[in-house]
Amino acid sequence: MSNNKREDKQKRQSSPIWSKLLPSIIQVRVPVPFSLKWINSYILLEQQGTFTVIDPGLRTPEAEAVWANVMSELKLEWSSCTAIVVTHQHPDHYGLSGYVQQLSGAPVYMTRDAKAYTEKLWGAGSEQFERDMKQLLHTHGTPDDITEAILLNLREFQARVEPQPDVTYVEAGEALLAGDRHWQLIHTEGHAYGGIMLYDANEKLLLCGDQVLPRITPHVGVVAGEDRPVLQQFLNHLQQIAELEVSLVLPGHREPFTRYRERIESILQHHERRLAELYSYIAENGAVDAFVCCEWMFGSHLRDQPHNMRFALTEVIAHLQYLQQQGKLLEQPDAAGKLIYSVR
Ligand SMILES: [Zn+2]
């Protein structure tokens, strides 16, 4: 082992809840009460003793306790937090931002589109969103009891994003100075509206939110009340961002990784495979709705897991709509208004 490597190893420190990835970047594993287990938040340390937090997590007592321990173990004070950046508005990333803002007084940076979306989910638009979600699930063949369980699960997130922050808008295309680095803000598509990634071109670091994840594929699902070709947008976007030179990816879930382009390639292949499987299933089984396809693909055990069921179902609908937009499937309402897919 060279001297440099030995020094590096000595400098690298970690605990079960945080790891020092680079001298000035700390990964914090903030627990979430669902299958993903934790979300990665990142602390970007600054030379003058201040720091920036990326995606503080979902508001739960466990997450608050983890943050209290991290602050104490790293000997940091919230008063030294100068900025909170939220890559996208999903509650596991955004939920604690208002709480951290209360503790620190720091600005919360996110895009106008992402913030507007929080209004839709947990603000003035939430009743309409619930009606749209109910309609979406019904139209795609979801049994009523499962629809109700999904709506109840969605409502439970309200308390996990409180208090909601005062937001300072940033937009893709802008530059942001944080952690003594100049980050380019790059827009994302397909996983969440109005999302951004932070790219440091000097060190080729990418804080990518959930856009490229190791081992698990980022969720790409249709959104109730919206009519956007999310899967097409996601796949196009992945192809665009594959051009970036990236030596270390700091993702929103699981562990940081290096093989950026290989990972993008395997996510693209995953969707190609899924699309082909879904098409063959419908070709062999005739006209079906999305709920039937979802149970075939993921199994009926999701009936007891409304959170995972919502993810699975909205993703299957995104795949079906993609095949329909490609001219491979027909999408037709039956007499009851339920959407039925068949091969062209
Ligand atoms: Zn997300």
Would you give an account of this structure?
This protein is α/β, with parallel strands linked by helices. The chain has a single domain (15-338), classed as Ribonuclease Z/Hydroxyacylglutathione hydrolase-like (Metallo-beta-lactamase, Chain A), CATH 3.60.15. Helices cover 40% and strands 20% of the residues. The chain has helices at residues 3-11, 61-73, 91-94, 97-104, 112-122, 126-139, 144-155, 230-241, 260-285, 290-298, 306-325; strands spanning 18-22, 25-31, 38-45, 51-54, 81-85, 108-110, 167-169, 175-178, 181-187, 196-200, 205-209, 248-251, 329-333, 339-343. The strands form 3 sheets. It has a 7-stranded mixed β-sheet with strand order 1-2-3-4-5-6-7. Strands 8-9-10-11-12 form a 5-stranded mixed β-sheet, with no helix packed on it. The chain has a two-stranded antiparallel ribbon with strand order 13-14. Helix 5 (112-122) crosses helix 6 (126-139) and helix 10 crosses helix 11 (306-325). The chain is globular and about 65 Å long. Mean pLDDT is 95; it is low at 6-11. Zinc ion binds at residues 88, 90, 191-192, 210.
- What about the largest sheet? 7 strands, mixed
The percent range for strand residues is: 15-25%
End-to-end CA span: 62 Å
Flag low-confidence runs: 6-11
According to CATH, the fold-level topology is Metallo-beta-lactamase, Chain A
The strand line-up of the biggest sheet is 1-2-3-4-5-6-7
* Helix segment tally: 11
User: Which CATH class applies here?
Assistant: Alpha Beta
Overall shape: globular
Helix content: 40-55%
User: Into how many domains do the coordinates divide?
Assistant: 1
- Structural class, by secondary structure, is alpha/beta
Question: What's the pLDDT, averaged over the residues?
Answer: 95
- Spatial extent as radius of gyration: 21 Å
Total number of beta strands:
14
Q: Which ligands are bound?
A: zinc ion
**H/E element string?**
HEEEEHEHHEHHHEEEEEHEHHHEE
Question: Can you tell me the CATH architecture?
Answer: 4-Layer Sandwich
Pfam family, one: Lactamase_B
Function: Counteracts the endogenous Pycsar antiviral defense system. Phosphodiesterase that enables metal-dependent hydrolysis of host cyclic nucleotide Pycsar defense signals such as cCMP and cUMP.
Domain Metallo-beta-lactamase: 39-253
Organism: Paenibacillus montaniterrae
